[in-house]
Amino acid sequence: MEPNRPRILTGHRPTGPRHLGHLVGTLTTWESLQDSYECFFLIADIHVLTTDFQHPQRIESNTLEVLLDWLASGIDPERSTLVLQSAVPEHTQLATLLGMLVSEARLRRNPTYKEQVHNLNLQPSLGLLSYPVLQAADILLYKGQRVPVGEDQLPHIELAREVARRFNQTYRPVFPEPEALLSTTPRLPGTDNRTMHSSYGNTILLRDTPEETTRKVMGMYTDPSRIHPTDPGHIAGNPLFIYLDLFDDHPERVEDFKTRYQAGKVGDVAVKQHLASVINQRLAPIREKRSQLAGKNDDLMELLFQGSSRARKIARETLVEAMDCMGLRLGASQLPPARIIDER
Ligand code: TRP
Description:
The protein has 16 helices and 5 strands. With 344 residues, it is mainly alpha-helical. The strands form 2 sheets. The chain has a 3-stranded parallel β-sheet. Strands 4-5 form a two-stranded parallel sheet.
């Protein structure tokens, strides 16, 4: 591992078990960043409440599912720090302070906010409006320099940059301006060709069995204009080939399938069978690891709690720095020192 690695903070909301979209969109990248960066991976459980405060019963089991999937995908608690947002109260404390530097009008213009209010048809709460302020606190608390995320998160990273700038200009330079590390893989379509999303029922989960995976692949959306296997098929925008490009390690084999597909010389069923087999190959080591870890809930929680208390030391130092800047030195002097947190 490189010494003095730049710091990364990124995370997921624990909304359920992870699917192939998470795997190719973020987890594979995160896994590969662990040697060159000092990584903090956050399970953002408080963020779940911004839309789901009426359903508290699923958060705990979803947190475990996410943790299992992360570890199975190669997130390594020896090299990286796992953090549970609600176990480090400094996240919400810093968010309250940073909220002073963000106008309410700015938050209303946030595209993800507008989209959610529109889509979910919900009565927007203060918590939902300030979602990106909490996310900025997540990043800035660890002075994260890079934030590997999908494109949908760019507006939030932009806001975190603005807050960091505003803070540094108003007081003194405390926070680096975090930069997004954008994933290069396009958004993965779900089995029905809409974006793969937990709430659409179109996901292939990392924890699915090979049989479930094959069943889902066999039912996948494909070229709708193709009636008979001998009709010439379309490649562009066809999810089968988007998947094959991502999951088949033999590009020449994929090219061969494409040529035959366009010529009407291979049917959808044959392509799907091949696709199911390459996806199952890719998932085999992940499933193996997942089944070794499954059921060891206490050990998993311990990993998360250990990471969180390591993280909390850093978080506490940054919070004290921010409080000092903002005229709250008296209060900061009365907080238990990071040392004590560590000895808990
Ligand atoms: N908002 C992110 C998502 O929905 C999750 C998240 C919370 C996050 N805090 C973060 C991502 C900090 C990156 C950095 O995917």
